[in-house]
């Protein structure tokens, strides 16, 4: 059957996958080896050294190509390593336009590492895509976006931004971690580069640290393959195996994540202990119509501010929750809660956080796939203490 004709739910299981050639194993074997025997110098069976390539990593990369409708994929040791590789496409003096509401680790990498090499970053609100054009100069080379963003779930119009970047001969990179390929596929909307923290929804079980980049253009791919080989931040075979195993249930997990998040978002909005709820599924959420157009559903992450919005109440709530484990990360089968101001976005100065709305009282939920009634009981008990 033509793989390109498969629906998404079939692609996650079969896309890019074939039984192993050695013994017909249905699951990709873990090739836990650093090197491969050669019959003669330079003569091998497709693999020579695992930093360059490894069959287990190749199996994962092929699966990622399939579910993102891409052509080339590279798996990295972490999401941040994947971002780092994309930024290495740039040269000193280049400029990047970045969405101003983004993951704290990305902000730290951009401002504390790459600014030292004379790469300039402009952090811009992209609720209105016209804001991007105001920052474009002859030195601009890349536009970097998240949608939905971390943690305010800001939605930006990928297709409209792609029209701007193509008109100005710029690269457009999309961090697709929060949506996952199940909810949106940025390459089909005009993006040049898609990046994932595979640790999150794609792996889905909070047991892997891994990142990925997927592209269509061969020239970009060749540069990224060279960077991957030369800098060495590659995904190991065991992590690749675990990510591939998790990927195969992405579709069924995301359906439950979205169902549970929908119920909890409405519960929070109707709770008199809650001041504000951020969730793209609400018609009042900025750019809700764009989310509805470019996403299959609205995702499994919700952020909210308890009444009064102060730090102490937020801390009491996250410390009281039981089913929602207080932990960094998101996208696992278990529900997690985070306090962005002191956790995922602690590296961003307080004044910069608050400019975009990341206040000290903000709480972020990664809604898991447990019974939603149990999750609401847990939230109810925690909110009643403030």
Describe the structure.
The chain is of the alpha/beta class and 386 residues long. Helices cover 36% and strands 15% of the residues. It contains 14 helices and twelve strands. The strands form two sheets. Strands 1-7-6-5-4-2-3 form a seven-stranded mixed beta sheet, sandwiched between helices. It starts with 7 loop residues before the first helix and ends with a helix. The model has no long low-confidence stretch (mean pLDDT 96).
Q: How large a portion of the residues is in β-strands, by DSSP E? A: 5-15%
Question: Major sheet, described briefly?
Answer: 7 strands, mixed
Number of strands: 12
By secondary-structure content and strand pairing, the structural class works out as alpha/beta
Distance between the termini: 57 Å
Which series of helices and strands comes N to C? HHEHEHEHEHEHEEHHHEHEHEEHEH
> Quaternary state, please?
single chain
Poorly predicted runs of 5 or more residues: none
**Average pLDDT for all residues:** 96
Rg over alpha carbons = 21 Å
- The number of helical elements comes to 14
The neighbouring-strand order within the major sheet is: 1-7-6-5-4-2-3
Anisotropy-based shape: globular
Report helical residue fraction: 25-40%
Short description:
The chain is α/β, with parallel strands linked by helices and 386 residues long. It has 14 helices and twelve strands. The chain has helices at 8-14, 55-67, 79-87, 104-113, 130-133, 158-167, 180-183, 218-231, 237-247, 250-269, 288-294, 311-320, 350-356, 372-383; strands at 72-76, 95-99, 120-124, 140-146, 171-175, 193-197, 211-215, 274-278, 301-306, 325-326, 336-338, 363-366.
């Amino acid at each position: 059957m033509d793989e390109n004709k498969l629906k998404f739910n079939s692609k996650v299981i079969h896309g890019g996958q074939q039984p192993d050639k050695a013994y017909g194993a249905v699951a990709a074997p873990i090739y836990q080896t650093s090197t491969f025997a050669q019959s003669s110098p330079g003569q091998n069976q497709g693999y020579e050294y695992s930093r360059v390539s490894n069959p287990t990593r190749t199996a994962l990369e092929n699966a990622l190509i399939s579910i993102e409708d891409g052509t080339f994929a590279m798996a990295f040791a972490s999401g941040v390593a994947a971002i780092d590789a994309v930024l290495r496409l740039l040269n000193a003096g280049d400029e990047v336009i970045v969405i101003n509401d983004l993951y704290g680790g990305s902000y730290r990498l951009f401002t504390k590492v790459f600014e030292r090499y004379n790469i300039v970053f402009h952090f811009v609100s992209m609720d209105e895509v016209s804001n991007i054009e105001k920052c474009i100069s002859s030195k601009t080379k890349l536009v970097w976006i998240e949608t939905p963003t971390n943690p305010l779930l800001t939605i930006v119009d990928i297709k409209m931004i792609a029209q701007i970047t193509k008109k100005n001969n710029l690269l457009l990179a999309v961090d697709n971690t929060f949506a996952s390929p199940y909810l949106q596929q940025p390459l089909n909307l005009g993006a040049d580069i898609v990046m994932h923290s595979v640790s999150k929804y794609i792996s889905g079980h909070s047991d892997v640290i891994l990142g990925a980049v997927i592209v269509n253009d061969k020239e970009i791919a060749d540069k990224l393959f060279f960077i991957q080989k030369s800098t060495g931040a590659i995904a190991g075979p065991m992590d690749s195996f675990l990510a591939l195993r998790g990927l195969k249930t992405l579709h069924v997990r995301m359906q439950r994540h979205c169902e549970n998040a929908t119920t909890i978002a409405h519960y929070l909005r109707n709770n008199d202990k809650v001041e504000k709820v951020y969730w793209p599924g609400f018609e009042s959420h900025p750019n809700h119509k764009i989310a509805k157009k470019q996403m299959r559903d609205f995702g499994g992450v919700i952020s909210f501010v308890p009444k009064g919005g102060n730090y102490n109440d937020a801390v009491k709530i996250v410390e009281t929750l039981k089913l929602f484990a207080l932990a960094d990360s998101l996208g696992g089968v278990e529900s997690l809660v985070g306090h962005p101001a002191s956790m995922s976005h602690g590296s961003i100065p307080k004044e910069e956080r608050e400019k975009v709305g990341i206040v000290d009282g903000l709480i972020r939920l990664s809604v898991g796939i447990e019974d939603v009634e149990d999750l609401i009981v847990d939230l109810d008990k925690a909110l009643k203490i403030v």
